[in-house]
Write a structure and sequence with these properties.
Elements: H1 11-19, H2 37-43, H3 49-57, H4 62-65, E1 71-76, H5 93-107, E2 110-115, H6 121-130, E3 137-140, H7 147-158, E4 163-165, H8 166-185, E5 195-198, H9 202-213, E6 221-225, E7 228-229, H10 239-242, H11 253-257, E8 262-265, H12 274-278, E9 285-288, H13 298-304, E10 309-312, H14 327-336, H15 344-359, H16 364-370, H17 389-404, H18 415-425, H19 428-442, E11 445-449, H20 455-466, E12 470-475, H21 480-486, E13 496-498, H22 506-517, H23 524-533, H24 535-544, E14 550-553, H25 559-567, E15 579-585, E16 590-594, H26 604-620, E17 626-630, H27 644-656, E18 661-666, H28 668-672, H29 674-678, E19 691-693, H30 697-710, E20 714-721, E21 727-729, H31 736-747
Parallel strand pairs: 1-2, 1-3, 3-4, 5-6, 5-8, 8-9, 9-10, 11-12, 11-14, 12-13, 14-21, 16-19, 17-18, 17-19
Antiparallel strand pairs: 6-7, 15-16, 15-20
This protein binds NADPH dihydro-nicotinamide-adenine-dinucleotide phosphate (NDP), pyruvic acid and magnesium ion.
Protein name: NADP-dependent malic enzyme
Cofactor: Mg(2+); Mn(2+)
Domain Malic enzyme N-terminal: 23-156
Length: 752
């Protein structure tokens, strides 16, 4: 029997994730300033009266004066929450909040969850219909069949904005895309394949209808529910199911699957058994899409049939066939042309765009993150949800299909410009970070956590291990295993812990350290004491002796002290100037700031080195660097005595011809504000800068910490660049998830 791996996190961790900080996953952020009395007067009474009157006169201006045009309601009554069943409206809220954040994360669609406490079809219809003024679209979610069919159909007829039941059509679109590709790979034609659909609810019926519309023959499909095959003449099925009743002798799923080419699971956990898989046709196609637990785990299916192509709804296996690959982008396209609905032409356009994307050459950053030359094949029949191309390709295809089929009320005139705007709508850093996490899973490394007695570090180490990103190597005393146990770890002994009091590596470490430090005035016994007592020195020596690929420290000591300790053991990389980068990540922009941690007053040459190395990191993170050397002065105005090193750095780059845009000296508002930059038409930056090289540590460190404490954006780092070994010093304020990100970036070689 093949073992099925545990989930990447514990129940406790998942609950903590949802409870930590502000409970839940969404909050509302004002998009206009609300600081002064004047702001308030404009935003609310009396200023708000003007858009009210304008909309009353011309309803279409609601799209100009309110958030309606980019706002989608995710609506459920909790009767079919994933594959967990009917657990009620309130219990569905975490899933609906989740869909809302996926909308934002993947397609910059604002979305709010609405849970309706009723199973009465008419009440749901009335409630949703009444919401039309508020929203640009309605995404129905996890409402069970057959009620969902009536609800969606009626709302589509009555409402003038897109109404889309994601479990039906979102799922069908992705399933169709995956099936097209799986058939291509196995040399099958849709018109020939024998398909068994397990489940006869919302998702199953919609998928069956779409694949039949695409060419799968009605006679070649057998649908099953919990009772077994839905055969012609079975009298306990509803009208939507009986439309798919099969003329067959088969009565059970096992019988139906005999010789079948395709299994589409839209039912419940564990419904497909290895014996059934063994009885399928050669190179069977198995889509086990129940969430969160599929009909069969891929390991089990693969063990039964090594020749199978397998997909699940989960993100932790190859081939995630999940509606998340569709709904954000489908709504993006529909909203952007103000479509009155999402019709079949738009759905088919989305399915084809997704299928084609998987067959296209995979971009280097996606391939690099997977650690393999990921190209179309049995383990890659469908793009991953964080594939940065989905936004542009699928949304544009849907928008175009809406225009061609006559449901777009505001057609896009310049499609090329629209595609560019779609690309700009997402920050590539988020995609690169997701890919870095995936890359870490593909190539797990050993990361030394030098402060293994700290709770925040242990939580990071647990998340790092359970996420499959690599093996944490903990530095700590005897009680680390007890501490892990107290944090809910069932198998604390399985964590590798190095204790300097008893480690057999200590003599080798002392030798190593003494050889380095003897000519810097250190005695052997001082080296012994450092190895025994200093966790940074001990951790760094573990790294030097090959016990790990990277090291993380920083939460128990000031940065400079950690740096001093580490430098006793690890040198800068030959010819490099070590320095630190803080990365500021917003919804649409990323800014790299350096050197924020190491060099107090860098020389011109050092600043040029820092600029080149930061530009490389920016490129690795998906950004074409545009470097500004910052100052209080812009091109000598005002003059001052602190500008020399900056000017030397610019001259040094002039000689080096580094292959990216750079300019300086300039004030931050010139570097970051397009209007201000335009006042200097000779400046060699085509757009505002995204790499800010600071003149000295004072301004750099203060700016980075101010932004971390006061800014609304996410701050990554500081990343320590330019050391001979991969070592990272986190800020003392780091959270467990900051530490995991740093560990992933370090292990993947992103921060070097
Ligand atoms: N990967 C993806 O993107 C998506 C996956 N899904 C998954 O599909 C499943 C169904 O969701 P949805 O259609 O919305 O829910 P519905 O409640 O509308 O339908 C559930 C269907 O599953 C059937 N079913 C339940 N257990 C079994 C079983 N052991 N064997 C055969 N049939 C069974 C039910 O049959 P009966 O009436 O006999 O109980 C019913 O027909 C869920 O697991 C969900 O997570 C759904 C949408 C998207
Ligand atoms: C993915 C999804 O929507 C579901 O499982 O219900
Ligand atoms: Mg769903």
């Amino acid at each position: 029997m093949t073992d099925v791996p545990a989930d990447q996190f514990t129940e406790r961790e998942a609950l903590r994730f949802h409870a930590e900080g502000r409970p839940g996953k969404i909050e509302i952020v004002a998009s206009k300033p609300l600081t002064t009395q004047r702001d308030l007067a404009l935003a609310y009474s009396p200023g708000v009266a003007w858009p009210v009157k304008a909309i009353a006169e011309d309803p279409s201006t609601a799209y100009d004066y309110t958030a309606k045009g980019n706002l989608v309601a995710v609506i459920s009554n909790g009767t079919a929450i994933l594959g967990l069943g009917n657990l009620g409206a309130l219990a569905s809220k975490p899933v609906m909040e989740g869909k809302a954040v996926l909308f934002k994360r993947f397609a910059d669609v604002d979305s709010i969850d609405i849970e309706l406490k009723t199973e009465d079809v008419d009440r749901i219809i009335d409630a949703v219909e009444l919401m039309e003024p508020s929203f640009g679209g309605i995404n129905l979610e996890d409402i069970k069949a057959p009620e969902c069919f009536i609800i969606e159909q009626t709302l589509r007829e009555r409402m003038n904005i897109p109404v889309f039941h994601d479990d039906q059509h979102g799922t069908a679109i992705i399933t169709a895309a995956g099936l097209i590709n799986a058939c291509l790979l196995t040399g099958r034609r849709l018109s020939d394949i024998k398909v068994v659909v397990n489940g006869a609810g919302a998702a199953a019926i919609a998928c069956t209808e779409l694949v039949k519309a695409m060419g799968v023959r009605h006679d070649n499909v057998i649908m099953c529910d919990r009772t077994g095959v839905i055969y012609q003449g079975r009298d306990d099925v509803n009208q939507w199911q009986s439309a798919h009743a099969a003329a067959t002798e088969a009565r059970t799923l096992t019988e139906a699957l005999h010789g079948a080419d395709v299994f589409l699971g839209l039912s419940a956990a564990g419904a497909l058994k290895p014996e059934m898989v063994k009885d399928m046709a050669p190179a069977p196609i198995i889509f086990a899409m129940a969430n969160p637990e599929p009909e069969i785990r891929p390991e089990l299916a693969k063990a039964a049939r090594p020749d199978a192509i397998i997909a699940t709804g989960r993100s932790d296996y190859p081939n995630q066939v999940n509606n998340v690959i569709g709904f954000p982008f489908i709504f993006r396209g529909a909203l952007d042309v103000r479509a009155t609905g999402i019709n079949d032409a738009m759905k088919i356009a989305a399915a084809n765009a997704i299928a084609e994307l998987a067959r296209d050459r995979v971009p280097d950053e996606v391939a690099a993150a997977y650690g393999v030359q990921h190209s179309f094949g049995p383990e890659y029949i469908i793009p991953a949800p964080f594939d940065p191309r989905l936004m542009e390709v699928v949304s544009a295809a849907v928008a175009k299909a809406a225009m061609d089929s006559g449901v777009a009320t505001r057609p896009i005139l310049d499609m090329a410009a629209y595609r560019t705007s779609l690309r700009a709508r997402l920050n590539p850093t988020t995609a690169v970070l997701s890919l870095a996490y995936e890359g870490a899973r593909a190539r797990p490394k050993r990361v030394i956590f030098a402060e293994g007695e700290e709770e925040v570090v242990l939580r990071a180490a647990i998340a790092f291990r359970d996420g499959g990103y690599g093996t944490p190597v903990l530095v700590g005393r005897d009680d680390v295993h007890d501490r892990l146990k107290a944090l809910g770890v069932a198998d604390p002994e399985s964590f590798e812990v190095h204790n300097s009091r008893i480690s057999p590596l200590v003599p080798a470490m002392v030798d190593f350290l003494y050889a380095r430090l003897q000519r810097r005035g250190f005695l052997r016994r001082e080296c012994e004491r450092m190895v025994n007592q200093d966790r940074n020195i001990f951790g760094a020596l573990l790294l030097q002796l090959g016990e790990g690929d990277a090291m993380i420290t920083g939460v128990t000591r000031a940065y400079a002290q950690s740096m001093r300790e580490i430098k006793r053991v690890i040198d800068p990389a030959p010819g490099r100037t070590p320095f630190g980068i803080h990365v500021l990540v917003g919804q649409t922009h990323t800014v790299f700031i350096a050197d924020t941690t190491v060099n107090e007053r860098p020389t011109g040459e050092e600043l040029a080195d820092i600029a080149e190395a930061t530009a490389q990191v920016a490129r690795r993170m998906g950004h074409e660097p545009r470097v500004a050397f910052l100052s209080y002065s812009t091109f000598g105005n005002p003059e001052g005595k602190w500008l020399d090193n900056i000017r030397e750095a610019v001259s040094a780059l002039d000689k080096r011809q580094p292959g990216f845009e750079y300019e300086g000296e300039m004030a931050p508002d010139v570097a970051l504000n397009a209007k201000q930059l335009a006042n200097y038409p000779f400046a060699r930056l085509s757009e505002p800068a995204n790499v800010l090289i600071m003149p000295g540590l004072q301004s750099a460190n203060i700016s980075a910490k101010l932004l971390r404490e006061l800014g609304g954006d996410q701050m990554i780092g500081p990343m320590l660049i330019g050391m001979e070994k991969n070592v990272q010093i986190a800020p003392m304020t780091a959270t467990a998830s900051d530490l995991v990100t740093l560990a992933v970036l370090a292990a993947g070689g992103m921060a070097r």
